[in-house]
Description:
alpha/beta, TIM Barrel, Immunoglobulin-like, Jelly Rolls, nine-stranded parallel beta sheet, 12 helices, 28 strands, 21% helix, 31% strand, globular, binds 2-acetamido-2-deoxy-beta-D-glucopyranose, glycosidase, signal, Aldolase_TIM, disulfide bond, Glyco_hydro_b
Amino acid sequence: MAPKSLCVIVQFALLASGKTVRSALPPLGWNSYNTWSCSPSEDKIKQSAEGLIALGLDKVGYNFVTVDCGWPSRDRNSEGRLQWNATLFPSGGKALGDFIHDLGLGFGLYSGAGYLQCGSTDLPASLGFEELDAESFAEWGGDSVKYDNCYATSNTSMVDSSSAESQSPVRFQHMAAALDAVNRDIEYYVCQWGIGNDVGEWASAIGNTWRISNDIYNAWRSIWRITNQVVPYFRHTTRGAFADMDMLIVGLDVLSVEEERFHFGMWAINKSPLIIGAVLDSEKLSQSSLEIMSNKEVIAINQDSLTKQAQLVHRDTEAEWDIWLGELSDSRQILGLANWKNDSQTIQFDLATLGIASARARDVWAAEHVGVVTGVQNISLAGHQLQLWLLSDIISANPLVSKAYHGATDASVTGSARIVTCATGTCLPVGAKVGDLRGDSSVTFSNISSQTAGRTLLGIDFINYDYAFTTAWEFGDNTRNMTISVNGEKAKRWAFPLSGGNWQESGRLLIEVDGFTRGAGNAVTFAGVGNSYAPDVVGFELLE
Ligand SMILES: *[C@@H]1O[C@H](CO)[C@@H](O)[C@H](O)[C@H]1NC(C)=O
Ligand SMILES: *[C@@H]1O[C@H](CO)[C@@H](O)[C@H](O)[C@H]1NC(C)=O
Ligand SMILES: *[C@@H]1O[C@H](CO)[C@@H](O)[C@H](O)[C@H]1NC(C)=O
Ligand SMILES: *[C@@H]1O[C@H](CO)[C@@H](O)[C@H](O)[C@H]1NC(C)=O
Ligand SMILES: *[C@@H]1O[C@H](CO)[C@@H](O)[C@H](O)[C@H]1NC(C)=O
Ligand SMILES: *[C@@H]1O[C@H](CO)[C@@H](O)[C@H](O)[C@H]1NC(C)=O
């Protein structure tokens, strides 16, 4: 753990840099959108704020209430200032802020970096009015501003995700500067949707949180989609800067209890803000959903002082499971065993391949101690279960060793596949990659030496920045399929998540591949599936 004095210095430095403040840990709160879409009202917001307290959610850390889209009047006033819609919010913004503050909660505001607000055809957003609107946010007592990206380029097109302007950081940086200039501490929640390149890099510099994806959708499949999109953002998640996986759909009656635990746990270990979207009314919110969102141990993992996002370390796509591992304070780790299959199964893995010789494990959702764990584990998981093991007293295993690295430039390609040279310092560690790999083409690495016969762990460096935006509400899932076959044996398929913030940033996935013979002379072939493209292949190594 960092010494206390260091944390204080870091916090002070952030405060001193301006009025856009950072919460050291991921924000925990409530937002009106998932229940009321763009139709909030004073009554709805007040009841929700009171409901948050009545349900005891403030006691476990949820401490702000945000009015999402739909709150302003159609017209700015004669000075050009935003007005609250007086029919929906008869008391106005300042009085609502006072009401929320009197409950001991923060007041969350919403606007956008475009001409108009999302979900409307005529409500104003802040483009061109940044300084004036930031002043209004401060006058109303706003403690945070969620800043959306609709109507970025015109008054008529609500969602433009492809133009350079819609993807540009400039409009978001403008509001960050405007918030810095006002005399109130306001947290900034960038909601640019993760479009364009290097969003984690520019957004983490200005936002307390930044959305990485299109909206969450009321279905299980959006959990898989957003999870595959958050993978590379671990590089940017840090104290005061958190990748936002979007508001929770826990309590919206669209997931099973097991799936709600999975969703909440996956968001928690990735250090996403945990923003409740459910109606905060004990008559309407199920007890199980309330218990999931109130689980103190899971919230503590999210709020851990080390603020490190978990990483996807192993994936078996055909068996439909993942292993996630994240560092926590006090030399602890969180291990996430994710069963994507809608059926129970037993997964097997060796803790040594995760760098762990032994550890004391606690099953977080079951709130039970597992005991000391070591070596190969066979874990039974229910359908769509995310088992969370909190590991402490960890003894490290000897690291697995690679004898040789096999880079794209050593491969032989067929069909559409081609070897591409990258700019200096990109496509690491090789500086080149195999691109345009489809089902009718392949990449083969020959004469690969293995110390093991049969199954071996491969560390694969790949590039996939084919992010799902326009396809997000259908079946777009941010993955690309690739098959791997050793020595001509049956090919097996893996779904590769996003690897970075552009088409030159590599990611690594560890997978177990069967079919090796001991000694030199193995051939490893990568191929796409059907007409769709595989990820680009930078290279790989055997970890033994
Ligand atoms: C305020 O909201 C109501 C309900 O959505 C709407 O009918 C009305 O036109 C709005 N008024 C203004 C001035 O925007
Ligand atoms: C959008 O509408 C506003 C108000 O009618 C106008 O001032 C502005 O120029 C319009 N912008 C675009 C890009 O059409
Ligand atoms: C999972 O299985 C259950 C029970 O068979 C079914 O009701 C549910 O629709 C399935 N969920 C998904 C996301 O396919
Ligand atoms: C796990 O299962 C395998 C067979 O699938 C068995 O050989 C092994 O002993 C089991 N290990 C443990 C720790 O239960
Ligand atoms: C195969 O690899 C071995 C070392 O692993 C090397 O000695 C040999 O020259 C290689 N053969 C070919 C044909 O590249
Ligand atoms: C990957 O392959 C599976 C199985 O064929 C298929 O269902 C899925 O849609 C594919 N995904 C992509 C992104 O092509």
